[in-house]
Amino acid sequence: MLQFRIQPDSEIPASTQLFNQIRFAIASRQYPPAYKLPSTRALAMQTGLHRNTISKVYRQLEEDGLVESLAGSGIYVRAQGHEGGSRLQSAILNQNPEAYKVVQQALDELLAQGCSLNQAREIFLSEVDWRLRCSARVLVAVPSQDLGAGELMVYELEQYLKIPVQLVSMEELAAVLDKTTSATVVTSRYFIGNVEAIAAPKAVRVIPLDIYDYSKEINLLKNLPKDNCVGIVSLSSGIGRQAEVILHGLRGDELLVMTCQPKDNYKLLAMVKRAEVIISDQASFAMLQAAVHAAADDIIRPPKLIKVENYIGTNSINLLKRELGLI
Q1: Residue 246 C-beta-side C-alpha neighbours within 13 Å
Q2: 50-58 long-range CB contacts below 8 Å, 24 or more apart?
Q3: Residue 45, C-beta contacts closer than 8 angstroms, at least 6 positions apart
Q4: Distances from the Cα of 207 to the Cαs of 9, 187, 288, in angstroms?
Q5: Which domains does the chain have, with CATH numbers?
Q6: Which of 75, 80, 194, 207 is exposed most, by the fewest CB atoms within 10 A?
Q7: How far apart are CA 166 and CA 154, in angstroms?
Q8: C-alpha separations of 307 from 137, 200, 233, 258, 304 in Å
Q9: 310 has a pLDDT exceeding 90
């Protein structure tokens, strides 16, 4: 470890003496790129300076681009020019070697369009900052008459994103956005036009979510015998209505279709006693199983229960993760 010496009787301020000595150590490669500087405590013991003075010197070194601070790790000497990037850059590139190429290509395109390096830097930083701020608050917006669809989206998004998600009716969305500085609003493509009309004037981005295509379940229903009774259980009343239309288009009057929301105990009990097949969304499945168990003594042949694993399409989940910076 280098020994830094401070002359207390010098006309040069102690902080300037230390700054110059560290800068020389970096310039002479005694402190090479990626070298971790001594802690403020260690340097205070060596030089006799107060730790606040040393912190001030380190901040000045960072402002001059000679070192960089990594949260929770320490202060490191920055690489200069084409020495291979900073310690932080190296760590990222080791995890994703293609990342640097992507950034280079994007930067080249911006420069080709006439942007200066400073302008390109601000574009990158503002976009990153925007996404970080937006990921702090995710709102699901749906019409008040089908809040169940929003509950389904919140249920799945919180599982996959691992962050809190807030459900807001479209009728209340404008008031909620007036009280927040940044947020991302997500909704089903069924409602995207109305939601964008509310969010766009407030400069809030809206991300549409694709709905799962139910192809596996539809193929099963195509092959059910005539006169079978099919039950549809979902938090969303809209799904029930859409299922009736789709099934009628597929099978006409060949199948009897019953729909209900899981909290409607009367309809749910009637369904489990009558239906041969019941299809349920993931959020409602536990309540459906409980209803079948409660009616076990009145059922000769229990219905076949099918749990739909997704309401939101997988591609939409992955896109949202990328947009929020969660991948």
Answers
A1: 17
A2: 53/14, 53/15, 53/18, 54/18, 56/15, 57/15, 57/18, 57/19, 57/22
A3: none
A4: 64, 7, 31
A5: 14-77 (1.10.10.10), 96-131 (no CATH), 136-211+315-323 (3.40.50.10490), 215-308 (3.40.50.2300)
A6: 80
A7: 7
A8: 30, 36, 10, 16, 10
A9: no
Task: State both tokens at 54.
Answer: 């040393």
> What confidence tens digit (pLDDT) does each residue in 83-108 have?
544 455 555 544 555 666 777 788 88
- Give the C-alpha separation, 89 to 189, whole Å: 38
The more confidently predicted of residues 288 and 179 is: 288
Which segment of 38-42, 57-61, 116-120 scores lowest on mean pLDDT?
116-120
Nearest partner of 279 among 208, 225, 230, judged by Cα: 230
* Contact (Cβ atoms closer than 8 angstroms) between residue 277 and residue 283: no
The first and second tokens of residue 305, run together, are 């229960």
Report the chain's C-alpha Rg in angstroms. Answer: 30
Q: What is the pLDDT of residue 264?
A: 93
Q: How many residues are present in the chain? A: 327
Long-range Cβ contact pairs of 87-90 (< 8 A, separation 24 or more): 87/33, 87/34, 90/34
Q: What is the reported pTM?
A: 0.57
Give the pLDDT confidence score for residue 33 in this predicted structure: 83
Q: How many helices (H) and strands (E) does the chain have?
A: 14, 10
C-alpha closest to that of 315 among 185, 208, 234: 208
134: phi then psi, degrees, rounded to nearest 5 = -70, -35
Give just the sign of the alpha carbon dihedral 215, 218, 219, 220: positive
DSSP character string of 151-191: HHHHHHHHHHH-S-EEEEEHHHHHHHHHT-S--EEEEETTT
